[in-house]
User: Fold this.
Amino acid sequence: MTYDKKIELFPIGFLHTPFETRAPFQPDVNIENSIEFWLELDEKYIPALDKLPFFNYIHILFYLDRIDDQVKLKAHPPSLAGKEVGLFASRSPYRPNHIALSTVRLLKIEHNILFISSIDALNNSPVLDIKPYIKSLDCREDANSGWSDFFNKQI
Assistant:
């Protein structure tokens, strides 16, 4: 399978976090009301923020710009104590396109600054897109925890 069109992405803003060289594996849900996390959006996108404050949560797609180019097809999730899963069954940052997704609480918006809850991103990570978290679309009642459910049954 080949694809002959060029794909170009560009940042619409940058994340500001206290993490300079290493980010946590997942956002820290205990850091909800901190002023340490915000997204600075390019001012030309301010009109795109219309009605976004109606949402409690947003998805942020960002680029892992400081990950080396090594793609690891197997991952060792921290919660699995030495067990291995395939890359696409993990949240490993060592992905073919270095794209990350985090869901965060939207605390407030001031001009082009979105104050958010904790995010698992390095400071100045480029933001590719923002999408609202919509409960009826993003929360699936029959969702499971995949391999986590499987391995916990074996214990």
Q: What stands out?
A: Residues 15 and 26 are 15 Å apart (CA to CA). The beta strands are 13-16, 38-41, 57-63, 74-75, 85-86, 99-110, 113-116, 126-132. The mean pLDDT is 88. The first helix runs from residue 135 to 138.
